[in-house]
Write a structure and sequence with these properties.
Helix content of chain A: over 70%
Largest sheet of chain B: 7 strands, mixed
Oligomer: heterodimer
Structural class of chain B: alpha+beta
Distance between the termini of chain A: 113 Å
Shape of chain B: elongated
Largest sheet of chain A: none
Number of helices of chain B: 23
Mean pLDDT of chain B: 83
Order of helices and strands of chain A: HHHHHE
Number of strands of chain A: 1
Mean pLDDT of chain A: 67
Chain lengths: ~170, ~675
């Protein structure tokens, strides 16, 4: 008599039923775990990303604060009475010399029509004189003062280390 | 027949499969075991070492300083502030190609290549890790240099991306107003510690604390996490100084010092009702942005640190004490005799004899004899008491370092002639600020307000943290203050301070001209003066007190009325409109005109007492009153037991006026007398 081993069938039948449930549970758990990992990874990279943005913004804030200070300083320097006085010195000699020039040069109308127009419009001769191309009498002192002021003005220059005379 | 076949024993396939399965499992287990063991080894045994290594790669700790607090003037103008700057430095141990680095740097910084190469090579030999190349670089220049030095091969994650080069963040202190109020503001050193002025005295408030930033970076050097250690941010200081007023005072003082040929000058402007110092000026001065220009002469804040003999301005105290004790009134008369007086074998004399005058006139003409006689009536104790109440001999408490309290000897150590000397401003040392405060007290109806420079201290978000409340002390009665103001007004109207008459405003004050004490000779030097004028304006409702002191003027008469009063005038005429003070007089005097004849109070260089003749007395500036006999009797009764000290009385003058003269009539009389004198000669 041939023995028929039914255990395998029974086992396999039972195993199939058991396996599917276990497999399903395992799969679900696995999926949950994987999802968790994905979620954690996403969170991690998001936080990294936010961190980068944060540091960029912080750096931007610091740069803007520095810029604000620098602009405030430049504004204060330009509005300081000493700087205003220097600026006025460069303007006043120019006006004074122009007036002197206007007084010393005698007015001769080159075109009768111009003179007539000037007269009819009530324009003083000095205005016509001032409109002529100016000779070298243009305030050299003012230019020199402006050059001196430009040289000493607070521009963001490079201060080489004092101990190092590199120029 | 039976067949026997040799069949291989049937293996159980399942067992084989199982065995193979178990073998694979074993392999996996072994594999995982090895990995696990390695993990345990790495994460447990080598945990600390590896964590530190990872942290070292990931974390970077930087120390930086919070920007030092800003100093503002009362109107919000910036007087001192810090800006960010960077220093480019090289770590010589990391440099590979010295020549290439030097070449690149020379092109970027426009520097000498060979010198740079030599510097870097020497540093590399010495293994120096900090070699500064360029300092105090600000703003866009840093970006330009970063771009120019960009080298992607370096693999560096921090800027500049060039092997061996780094930035160091620092702060630079800037003073945008330059020389304005330089001694008041002071300056701070490279470490951000105040060295002088408000920078020093308020260093604790202004100091930018060191903070630590811990940064986490990824492999590309990007920061994704940062932790900053919490530190209290520094505070900002708002001063009572006003930039436009300070500038006007600085300019006027500089002009005055140069015109007088003086060695130095000081000026103080105080708001009488609040005690706020609107300006405190010293000449010569310095620019705090250029510390290499600072020297011992221009650094000192002489207005609070230098002591000098005030001279005749101190007669304010003399007459104030007498008025407070009700010993005199401004209209009462006093006899200056022939202009000399001897006290404890010391002869004092007037610069010009004034004869018999009212107390107001005596002060106007700065008669030393009258002041000494008055002080003798007041007495040592009362005089000393008022001196101390006025704040002399101790610091005012202004928020500046190294303030001196002056020199006031206790009354127990006075000599026989000390009271007389002090009554005319000798044997006492004061500062310009103390004298200004004393005058401000009189201007403020006898209430002394502690002078102060700080209006408020606040956070960077403008929340006020502290607002100092100055001390207020009643020193003299309002009546005394009023009478003194009347007398000081007379000084300007007809006395030694006529150059302090203002255009459109009334003013009052006192001149002072004193010999300087020579510490080498240990006596006063008759060739050197301290000339001052201290006054307030408008005289009717004094808004500000202005003190001007000139050290060793050389031009002209050198007295306070000549060298200091014009500076007072210029300052007052500039700042009173700026403060919105309403005019209280018609603008009759052109601002540049010379006033009528100056009355000099310059002490005579001749030490010997000069006895004036009766005719000199008769030629004195002012003639008063009706009956000399009647006045002599009144004088004897009011002057007290001082007969032994009185000089011989002058002969009665024929030209007398019955009524007490007004200021205008006095001037008229003086002009008439001058004309008659000129006519005679």
């Amino acid at each position: 008599m041939k023995r028929i081993n039914n255990n395998r069938k029974t086992r396999s039948t039972i195993a199939v039923e058991t396996d599917w449930r276990i497999v399903a549970v395992v799969i679900v758990c696995g999926l949950a775990l994987a999802a968790g990992f994905f979620f954690a990874a996403r969170q991690h990279f998001l936080s990294m990303d936010i961190g980068f943005k944060n540091s960029r913004l912080r750096r931007q804030l610091e740069d803007l604060e520095s810029e604000k200070r620098r602009l405030l300083l430049a504004r204060e320097v330009s509005l300081s009475p000493i700087e205003l006085k220097k600026a006025s010195r460069s303007i006043v000699p120019a006006v004074t010399e122009l007036k002197t020039f206007a007084q010393t040069v005698s007015y001769k109308p080159t075109r009768p029509s111009t003179a007539g127009t000037s007269a009819s419009l009530g324009i003083r001769p000095a205005a016509t004189i001032l409109s002529r191309p100016r000779p070298a009498l243009v305030p050299q002192r003012a230019e020199a003062a402006a050059r001196a002021d430009a040289a000493t003005a607070r521009k963001p220059g490079i201060e080489l280390a004092a101990a190092i005379n590199l120029r | 027949m039976k067949r026997t076949s040799k069949k291989a024993p049937k293996r159980d396939l399942s067992q084989v499969a199982f065995a193979r399965f178990m073998f694979i499992v074993a392999v996996f287990v072994l594999w995982i075991g090895v990995i696990g063991a390695r993990l345990v080894h790495l994460q447990v045994k080598q945990h600390d070492e590896l964590a530190a290594k990872a942290a070292g790669q990931r974390l970077e700790t930087k120390t930086s300083k919070l920007p030092r607090g800003t100093i503002y003037d009362r109107n919000g103008r910036v007087l001192a502030m810090s800006v960010n700057a960077h220093t480019l430095y090289a770590d010589a141990t990391e440099l590979v190609d010295i020549g290439g680095t030097a070449k690149r740097l020379s092109r970027v910084l426009s520097a000498n290549e060979s010198k740079l190469a030599r510097l870097l090579s020497e540093a590399k030999d010495l293994r120096r890790r900090y070699v500064p190349i360029a300092r105090s670089i600000e703003g866009d220049e840093v970006d330009r240099i970063n771009k120019a030095l960009e080298n992607t091969d370096s693999g560096k994650t921090t800027l500049p991306r060039f092997t061996g080069l780094y930035w160091r963040a620092e702060q630079k202190r800037k003073y945008p107003q330059q020389t304005i109020a330089a001694q008041v503001i002071g300056f701070s050193n490279a470490d951000g510690i105040g060295q002088a002025g408000i920078e020093q005295s308020q260093n604790e408030e202004l100091y930018g604390a060191v903070i630590k930033k811990t940064q986490e970076r990824d492999r590309l050097g990007r920061i994704y996490d940062e932790t900053v250690s919490e530190k209290e941010p520094p505070k900002d200081v708002v001063l009572t100084i006003s930039v436009p007023i300070q500038f006007a005072v600085d300019e006027a003082l500089a002009r005055g010092v140069k015109a007088a040929g003086a060695k130095a000058g000081m000026a103080v402007v105080i708001d009488n009702t609040t005690g706020e110092v609107l300006a405190l000026s010293n000449y010569p001065t310095f620019n705090p942005n250029r510390l290499d220009e600072i020297n011992s002469e221009n650094l000192a804040d002489s207005a609070v640190q230098s002591v000098y003999s005030p001279g005749s301005v101190f007669k304010l105290i003399t007459y104030g004490a007498a008025l407070e004790r009700k010993l005199i009134t401004p209209e009462q008369e006093i006899d200056a005799g022939n202009g000399t007086i001897e006290v404890a074998k010391h002869k004092f004399r007037d610069s010009h004899a004034v004869g018999r005058v009212s107390y107001a006139k005596a002060l106007a003409h700065s008669s030393n004899v009258c002041a000494i006689k008055t002080s003798l009536r007041v007495g040592k104790e009362s005089f000393y008491s008022l001196v101390k109440q006025m704040g002399f001999g101790r610091r005012t408490g202004i928020e500046l370092p190294a303030e001196t309290g002056g020199i006031v000897r206790p009354v127990e150590r006075w000599n026989g002639d000390s009271l007389a000397s002090m009554s005319i401003g000798y044997e006492i040392g004061v500062t310009a600020l103390q004298m200004a405060t004393a005058f401000a007290t009189i201007a403020n109806d006898g209430v002394r307000i502690q002078p102060h420079l700080i209006k408020e201290i606040r956070q960077s978000d403008e929340t006020v943290v502290d607002r100092p409340e100055p001390r207020r002390t009643t020193v003299v009665s309002p009546e005394t203050a009023r009478d003194l103001r009347t007398m000081l007004r007379e000084v300007v109207l007809s006395g030694t301070g006529r150059r302090a008459q203002l255009n459109g405003y009334t003013s009052a004050g006192k001149t002072g001209t004193a010999w300087k004490f020579n510490p080498k000779l240990k006596k006063v030097d008759a060739g050197k003066y301290i000339s001052s004028f201290i006054g307030f304006a408008p005289a009717s409702r004094p808004a500000v007190t202005i003190a001007v002191v000139m050290d060793e003027p050389k031009a002209g008469a050198r007295d306070g009325g000549t060298v200091s009063a014009p500076v007072f005038k210029e300052i007052a005429e500039t700042i009173l409109p700026e403060l919105g003070i309403a005019r209280d007089a018609e603008p009759t005097i052109p601002s540049n005109s010379q006033t009528a004849e100056d009355i000099s109070e310059t002490p005579d260089d001749n030490d010997a007492a000069k006895v004036l003749s009766a005719s000199d007395v008769n030629d004195s500036l002012d003639k008063v009153a009706s009956s000399r006999t009647k006045r002599a009797e009144e004088d004897r009764s009011t002057d007290g037991p001082q007969d032994v000290l009185k000089a011989s009385r002058p002969a009665p003058n024929k030209n007398t006026i019955d009524k007490a003269p007004s200021a205008g009539s006095i001037r008229l009389k003086e002009k008439e007398k001058e004309k008659s004198t000129k006519g005679k000669t």
